[in-house]
Protein backbone atom coordinates (compact mmCIF):
# COMPACT_ATOMS: atom_id res chain seq x y z
CA UNK A 1 0.00 0.00 0.00
CA UNK A 2 2.77 2.37 0.89
CA UNK A 3 5.34 3.85 0.36
CA UNK A 4 4.78 3.69 -3.43
CA UNK A 5 2.29 6.45 -4.33
CA UNK A 6 1.64 5.02 -7.80
CA UNK A 7 0.81 1.58 -6.41
CA UNK A 8 -1.46 3.16 -3.80
CA UNK A 9 -3.34 5.13 -6.44
CA UNK A 10 -3.79 2.03 -8.60
CA UNK A 11 -5.10 0.10 -5.60
CA UNK A 12 -7.64 2.81 -4.79
CA UNK A 13 -8.91 2.81 -8.39
CA UNK A 14 -9.12 -0.99 -8.31
CA UNK A 15 -11.11 -0.89 -5.07
CA UNK A 16 -13.51 1.69 -6.49
CA UNK A 17 -14.09 -0.51 -9.54
CA UNK A 18 -14.54 -3.52 -7.31
CA UNK A 19 -17.11 -1.65 -5.23
CA UNK A 20 -19.02 -0.65 -8.37
CA UNK A 21 -19.20 -4.27 -9.47
CA UNK A 22 -20.85 -5.31 -6.23
CA UNK A 23 -24.49 -4.61 -5.49
CA UNK A 24 -23.61 -2.95 -2.21
CA UNK A 25 -26.80 -0.90 -2.27
CA UNK A 26 -28.74 -4.09 -1.69
CA UNK A 27 -26.57 -5.17 1.25
CA UNK A 28 -27.75 -4.45 4.79
CA UNK A 29 -25.57 -2.00 6.73
CA UNK A 30 -25.11 -4.61 9.45
CA UNK A 31 -24.40 -7.60 7.20
CA UNK A 32 -21.18 -9.32 8.27
CA UNK A 33 -18.68 -11.32 6.25
CA UNK A 34 -16.54 -13.58 8.45
CA UNK A 35 -13.16 -14.36 6.92
CA UNK A 36 -11.24 -17.42 8.10
CA UNK A 37 -7.73 -17.90 6.68
CA UNK A 38 -6.66 -21.46 7.47
CA UNK A 39 -3.58 -23.59 7.04
CA UNK A 40 -3.65 -27.18 8.34
CA UNK A 41 -6.56 -26.41 10.64
CA UNK A 42 -8.68 -29.53 10.07
CA UNK A 43 -8.91 -30.21 13.80
CA UNK A 44 -10.20 -26.76 14.76
CA UNK A 45 -11.89 -25.09 11.81
CA UNK A 46 -15.24 -26.77 12.43
CA UNK A 47 -15.61 -24.99 15.76
CA UNK A 48 -14.69 -21.66 14.19
CA UNK A 49 -17.17 -22.03 11.32
CA UNK A 50 -20.01 -23.18 13.57
CA UNK A 51 -19.55 -20.18 15.86
CA UNK A 52 -19.67 -17.83 12.87
CA UNK A 53 -22.71 -19.41 11.23
CA UNK A 54 -24.50 -19.28 14.57
CA UNK A 55 -24.61 -15.46 14.41
CA UNK A 56 -27.71 -14.09 12.66
CA UNK A 57 -25.89 -10.99 11.35
CA UNK A 58 -23.39 -13.16 9.44
CA UNK A 59 -24.40 -13.30 5.78
CA UNK A 60 -21.11 -14.72 4.46
CA UNK A 61 -18.41 -17.01 5.80
CA UNK A 62 -15.41 -17.21 3.48
CA UNK A 63 -12.83 -19.85 4.33
CA UNK A 64 -9.48 -19.51 2.58
CA UNK A 65 -7.64 -22.83 2.65
CA UNK A 66 -4.12 -21.49 2.34
CA UNK A 67 -2.15 -24.47 1.03
CA UNK A 68 -3.26 -26.99 3.66
CA UNK A 69 -2.18 -30.62 3.44
CA UNK A 70 -4.41 -32.08 6.16
CA UNK A 71 -7.93 -31.95 4.72
CA UNK A 72 -8.86 -28.49 6.02
CA UNK A 73 -11.27 -27.89 3.12
CA UNK A 74 -13.11 -31.16 3.76
CA UNK A 75 -13.39 -30.32 7.46
CA UNK A 76 -14.81 -26.92 6.53
CA UNK A 77 -17.43 -28.48 4.25
CA UNK A 78 -18.48 -30.82 7.03
CA UNK A 79 -19.15 -27.80 9.28
CA UNK A 80 -21.38 -26.07 6.69
CA UNK A 81 -24.96 -25.68 7.95
CA UNK A 82 -26.49 -25.75 4.46
CA UNK A 83 -27.69 -22.13 4.65
CA UNK A 84 -25.68 -21.18 1.55
CA UNK A 85 -23.62 -18.63 3.46
CA UNK A 86 -20.27 -20.43 3.37
CA UNK A 87 -17.74 -20.48 0.55
CA UNK A 88 -14.26 -21.97 0.31
CA UNK A 89 -11.33 -20.51 -1.60
CA UNK A 90 -8.45 -22.94 -2.01
CA UNK A 91 -4.77 -22.09 -2.67
CA UNK A 92 -2.49 -24.95 -3.65
CA UNK A 93 0.55 -23.01 -2.40
CA UNK A 94 0.58 -21.14 0.91
CA UNK A 95 0.35 -17.39 0.35
CA UNK A 96 0.19 -16.13 3.95
CA UNK A 97 -2.69 -14.71 6.00
CA UNK A 98 -2.57 -11.20 4.54
CA UNK A 99 -2.95 -12.40 0.94
CA UNK A 100 -5.65 -14.86 1.97
CA UNK A 101 -7.66 -12.18 3.76
CA UNK A 102 -7.31 -9.69 0.90
CA UNK A 103 -8.62 -12.29 -1.54
CA UNK A 104 -11.58 -12.99 0.72
CA UNK A 105 -12.38 -9.29 1.05
CA UNK A 106 -12.36 -8.99 -2.75
CA UNK A 107 -14.70 -11.97 -3.04
CA UNK A 108 -17.18 -10.73 -0.42
CA UNK A 109 -19.97 -8.16 -0.58
CA UNK A 110 -21.08 -7.65 3.04
CA UNK A 111 -20.89 -4.16 4.54
CA UNK A 112 -18.82 -5.34 7.51
CA UNK A 113 -15.66 -7.46 7.60
CA UNK A 114 -14.85 -9.69 10.58
CA UNK A 115 -11.67 -11.76 10.87
CA UNK A 116 -11.75 -15.08 12.73
CA UNK A 117 -8.66 -17.22 13.20
CA UNK A 118 -9.14 -20.88 12.27
CA UNK A 119 -8.54 -22.14 15.80
CA UNK A 120 -10.63 -19.48 17.59
CA UNK A 121 -14.37 -18.98 18.05
CA UNK A 122 -17.06 -16.35 18.53
CA UNK A 123 -19.17 -16.28 21.67
CA UNK A 124 -22.92 -16.35 21.09
CA UNK A 125 -24.43 -12.90 20.60
CA UNK A 126 -21.13 -11.26 19.76
CA UNK A 127 -22.38 -9.12 16.91
CA UNK A 128 -25.52 -7.96 18.70
CA UNK A 129 -23.25 -6.33 21.26
CA UNK A 130 -20.70 -4.99 18.78
CA UNK A 131 -23.30 -3.49 16.44
CA UNK A 132 -25.38 -1.84 19.17
CA UNK A 133 -23.64 1.46 18.43
CA UNK A 134 -22.96 2.73 14.92
CA UNK A 135 -20.55 5.66 15.26
CA UNK A 136 -17.35 3.76 14.46
CA UNK A 137 -15.16 2.52 11.63
CA UNK A 138 -13.68 -0.40 13.59
CA UNK A 139 -15.40 -2.01 16.56
CA UNK A 140 -13.62 -4.51 18.77
CA UNK A 141 -14.53 -6.39 21.92
CA UNK A 142 -12.83 -8.17 24.77
CA UNK A 143 -11.13 -11.51 24.22
CA UNK A 144 -10.92 -14.52 26.49
CA UNK A 145 -7.81 -16.68 26.15
CA UNK A 146 -8.58 -20.38 26.55
CA UNK A 147 -5.83 -22.96 26.87
CA UNK A 148 -6.29 -25.69 24.26
CA UNK A 149 -6.09 -28.26 27.08
CA UNK A 150 -9.31 -26.82 28.49
CA UNK A 151 -11.31 -26.85 25.25
CA UNK A 152 -12.81 -30.30 25.69
CA UNK A 153 -15.91 -29.83 27.80
CA UNK A 154 -15.36 -26.07 27.91
CA UNK A 155 -18.36 -24.26 29.40
CA UNK A 156 -18.88 -20.79 27.93
CA UNK A 157 -20.92 -19.83 31.01
CA UNK A 158 -17.64 -19.72 32.95
CA UNK A 159 -16.59 -16.63 30.99
CA UNK A 160 -16.94 -13.43 32.99
CA UNK A 161 -19.51 -10.91 31.90
CA UNK A 162 -18.38 -7.29 31.77
CA UNK A 163 -20.47 -4.20 31.21
CA UNK A 164 -19.85 -2.80 27.74
CA UNK A 165 -18.27 0.56 28.72
CA UNK A 166 -17.61 1.62 25.09
CA UNK A 167 -14.58 3.83 24.51
CA UNK A 168 -12.42 4.86 21.59
CA UNK A 169 -8.76 4.03 21.01
CA UNK A 170 -6.42 6.67 19.65
CA UNK A 171 -3.23 5.92 17.73
CA UNK A 172 -0.71 6.50 20.56
CA UNK A 173 -2.65 4.36 23.05
CA UNK A 174 -3.13 1.53 20.57
CA UNK A 175 0.50 1.39 19.45
CA UNK A 176 1.85 1.64 23.00
CA UNK A 177 -0.26 -1.38 23.97
CA UNK A 178 1.49 -3.38 21.26
CA UNK A 179 4.93 -3.15 22.84
CA UNK A 180 5.37 -6.40 24.75
CA UNK A 181 6.91 -6.32 28.22
CA UNK A 182 9.09 -9.11 29.56
CA UNK A 183 7.71 -10.66 32.71
CA UNK A 184 4.13 -9.74 31.84
CA UNK A 185 1.50 -11.85 30.13
CA UNK A 186 0.98 -10.86 26.52
CA UNK A 187 -1.87 -8.40 26.08
CA UNK A 188 -1.13 -6.51 22.89
CA UNK A 189 -4.14 -4.79 21.36
CA UNK A 190 -3.03 -6.12 17.97
CA UNK A 191 -4.70 -9.36 19.11
CA UNK A 192 -8.07 -7.64 18.70
CA UNK A 193 -10.30 -8.91 15.91
CA UNK A 194 -12.62 -5.95 15.29
CA UNK A 195 -15.46 -5.63 12.84
CA UNK A 196 -14.36 -3.24 10.08
CA UNK A 197 -16.53 -1.18 7.76
CA UNK A 198 -15.82 -2.05 4.15
CA UNK A 199 -16.51 1.49 2.96
CA UNK A 200 -13.82 2.84 5.31
CA UNK A 201 -11.25 0.40 3.91
CA UNK A 202 -12.21 1.28 0.35
CA UNK A 203 -12.22 5.07 0.88
CA UNK A 204 -8.68 4.98 2.24
CA UNK A 205 -7.26 2.27 0.00
CA UNK A 206 -6.53 -0.03 2.95
CA UNK A 207 -5.86 -3.73 2.73
CA UNK A 208 -3.59 -6.15 4.57
CA UNK A 209 0.12 -5.72 3.89
CA UNK A 210 1.03 -8.90 2.02
CA UNK A 211 4.70 -8.62 2.97
CA UNK A 212 3.73 -9.44 6.56
CA UNK A 213 3.26 -12.84 8.15
CA UNK A 214 3.56 -11.41 11.65
CA UNK A 215 1.74 -8.39 13.05
CA UNK A 216 -0.48 -7.97 10.00
CA UNK A 217 -3.47 -7.04 12.18
CA UNK A 218 -1.47 -4.47 14.16
CA UNK A 219 -0.23 -2.94 10.92
CA UNK A 220 -3.69 -2.61 9.37
CA UNK A 221 -5.23 -1.08 12.50
CA UNK A 222 -2.33 1.34 12.90
CA UNK A 223 -2.66 2.57 9.32
CA UNK A 224 -6.42 2.89 9.78
CA UNK A 225 -5.97 4.99 12.93
CA UNK A 226 -3.35 7.08 11.13
CA UNK A 227 -5.96 8.20 8.59
CA UNK A 228 -8.59 8.97 11.21
CA UNK A 229 -10.42 5.72 11.97
CA UNK A 230 -12.83 5.75 14.91
CA UNK A 231 -11.83 2.56 16.72
CA UNK A 232 -14.39 1.63 19.37
CA UNK A 233 -13.80 -1.14 21.90
CA UNK A 234 -16.16 -2.56 24.49
CA UNK A 235 -15.37 -4.59 27.60
CA UNK A 236 -17.99 -7.22 26.80
CA UNK A 237 -16.27 -10.46 25.79
CA UNK A 238 -17.26 -11.85 22.38
CA UNK A 239 -14.14 -13.56 21.02
CA UNK A 240 -12.48 -16.75 22.24
CA UNK A 241 -8.78 -17.05 21.44
CA UNK A 242 -7.34 -20.54 21.83
CA UNK A 243 -3.82 -20.61 23.24
CA UNK A 244 -1.83 -23.33 21.47
CA UNK A 245 1.80 -24.26 21.99
CA UNK A 246 2.18 -24.89 18.24
CA UNK A 247 0.42 -21.77 16.94
CA UNK A 248 1.77 -20.21 13.74
CA UNK A 249 2.20 -16.83 15.47
CA UNK A 250 4.49 -18.49 17.99
CA UNK A 251 6.70 -19.93 15.23
CA UNK A 252 7.47 -16.82 13.24
CA UNK A 253 10.68 -16.50 11.30
CA UNK A 254 13.40 -14.04 12.21
CA UNK A 255 12.80 -12.20 8.93
CA UNK A 256 9.14 -11.72 9.88
CA UNK A 257 10.33 -9.36 12.62
CA UNK A 258 12.34 -7.37 10.09
CA UNK A 259 9.35 -7.07 7.78
CA UNK A 260 7.17 -5.77 10.63
CA UNK A 261 9.81 -3.21 11.65
CA UNK A 262 10.08 -2.15 8.00
CA UNK A 263 6.31 -1.66 7.86
CA UNK A 264 6.56 0.73 10.82
CA UNK A 265 9.44 2.51 9.09
CA UNK A 266 7.41 2.90 5.89
CA UNK A 267 4.53 4.42 7.86
CA UNK A 268 6.92 6.81 9.60
CA UNK A 269 8.27 7.89 6.21
CA UNK A 270 4.82 8.27 4.63
CA UNK A 271 4.21 11.70 6.18
CA UNK A 272 0.78 10.87 7.63
CA UNK A 273 1.95 10.75 11.27
CA UNK A 274 2.68 13.57 13.67
CA UNK A 275 3.03 14.26 17.38
CA UNK A 276 2.42 11.48 19.87
CA UNK A 277 1.27 9.07 17.19
CA UNK A 278 4.53 9.39 15.31
CA UNK A 279 6.56 8.92 18.48
CA UNK A 280 4.56 5.83 19.46
CA UNK A 281 5.16 4.19 16.06
CA UNK A 282 8.85 5.12 16.29
CA UNK A 283 9.10 3.37 19.68
CA UNK A 284 7.32 0.31 18.31
CA UNK A 285 9.68 0.19 15.32
CA UNK A 286 12.69 0.31 17.64
CA UNK A 287 11.19 -2.40 19.85
CA UNK A 288 10.56 -4.77 16.95
CA UNK A 289 13.88 -3.93 15.29
CA UNK A 290 15.64 -4.77 18.56
CA UNK A 291 13.89 -8.14 18.73
CA UNK A 292 14.96 -8.78 15.15
CA UNK A 293 18.61 -8.01 15.94
CA UNK A 294 18.53 -10.32 18.96
CA UNK A 295 17.04 -13.19 16.96
CA UNK A 296 19.45 -12.59 14.06
CA UNK A 297 22.39 -12.69 16.49
CA UNK A 298 21.20 -16.03 17.88
CA UNK A 299 20.61 -17.42 14.38
CA UNK A 300 24.05 -16.33 13.24
CA UNK A 301 25.63 -17.88 16.34
CA UNK A 302 23.81 -21.17 15.76
CA UNK A 303 24.90 -21.30 12.12
CA UNK A 304 28.42 -19.90 12.30
CA UNK A 305 29.51 -19.78 15.91
CA UNK A 306 30.15 -16.97 18.38
CA UNK A 307 32.74 -15.30 16.15
CA UNK A 308 30.24 -14.91 13.32
CA UNK A 309 27.62 -13.56 15.74
CA UNK A 310 30.05 -10.98 17.11
CA UNK A 311 30.89 -10.07 13.53
CA UNK A 312 27.22 -9.39 12.90
CA UNK A 313 27.22 -6.90 15.78
CA UNK A 314 30.36 -5.20 14.45
CA UNK A 315 28.71 -4.76 11.05
CA UNK A 316 25.50 -3.47 12.67
CA UNK A 317 26.43 -1.24 15.64
CA UNK A 318 22.76 -0.45 16.33
CA UNK A 319 22.29 -4.14 17.13
CA UNK A 320 24.70 -4.16 20.07
CA UNK A 321 22.38 -2.71 22.72
CA UNK A 322 19.29 -4.82 21.90
CA UNK A 323 21.42 -7.97 21.57
CA UNK A 324 23.01 -7.38 24.98
CA UNK A 325 19.64 -6.60 26.55
CA UNK A 326 18.07 -9.68 24.95
CA UNK A 327 20.81 -11.98 26.21
CA UNK A 328 20.53 -10.62 29.77
CA UNK A 329 16.75 -10.93 29.69
CA UNK A 330 16.97 -14.53 28.43
CA UNK A 331 19.32 -15.40 31.31
CA UNK A 332 17.00 -13.78 33.83
CA UNK A 333 13.93 -15.51 32.39
CA UNK A 334 15.71 -18.87 32.60
CA UNK A 335 16.65 -18.25 36.23
CA UNK A 336 13.11 -17.25 37.20
CA UNK A 337 11.63 -20.28 35.44
CA UNK A 338 13.94 -22.60 37.36
CA UNK A 339 12.94 -20.94 40.61
CA UNK A 340 9.22 -20.80 39.80
CA UNK A 341 6.52 -23.50 39.97
CA UNK A 342 6.45 -26.28 37.41
CA UNK A 343 4.09 -25.62 34.52
CA UNK A 344 2.05 -28.68 35.48
CA UNK A 345 1.61 -27.29 39.00
CA UNK A 346 0.29 -23.91 37.93
CA UNK A 347 -3.51 -23.67 37.73
CA UNK A 348 -4.95 -22.88 34.30
CA UNK A 349 -7.33 -19.94 34.51
CA UNK A 350 -9.21 -17.94 31.94
CA UNK A 351 -7.42 -14.75 31.00
CA UNK A 352 -8.88 -11.66 29.34
CA UNK A 353 -7.34 -9.06 27.05
CA UNK A 354 -8.63 -6.33 29.31
CA UNK A 355 -10.79 -6.21 32.40
CA UNK A 356 -13.70 -4.00 33.28
CA UNK A 357 -16.65 -3.63 35.58
CA UNK A 358 -18.77 -6.71 36.14
CA UNK A 359 -22.12 -6.71 34.36
CA UNK A 360 -25.15 -6.01 36.51
From TrEMBL:
InterPro entries: Glyco_trans_2-like, Glycosyltransf_2, Nucleotide-diphossugar_trans. It comes from the Bacteria. Pfam families: Glycos_transf_2. Gene3D superfamilies: Spore Coat Polysaccharide Biosynthesis Protein SpsA, Chain A (3.90.550.10). Residues 33-162 form the Glycosyltransferase 2-like domain. This is Succinoglycan biosynthesis protein ExoU. It comes from Phyllobacterium leguminum.
Amino acid sequence: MYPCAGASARMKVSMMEEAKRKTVANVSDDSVCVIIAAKNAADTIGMAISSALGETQVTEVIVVDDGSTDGTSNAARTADDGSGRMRIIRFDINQGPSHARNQAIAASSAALISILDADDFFLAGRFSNLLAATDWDLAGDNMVFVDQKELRGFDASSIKRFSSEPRFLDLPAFVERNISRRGKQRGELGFLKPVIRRDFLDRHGLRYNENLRLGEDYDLYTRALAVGARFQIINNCGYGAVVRSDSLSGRHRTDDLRQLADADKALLESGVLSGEGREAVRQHERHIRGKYHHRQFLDTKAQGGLGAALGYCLKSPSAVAPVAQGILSDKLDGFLQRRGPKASEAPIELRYLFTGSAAE
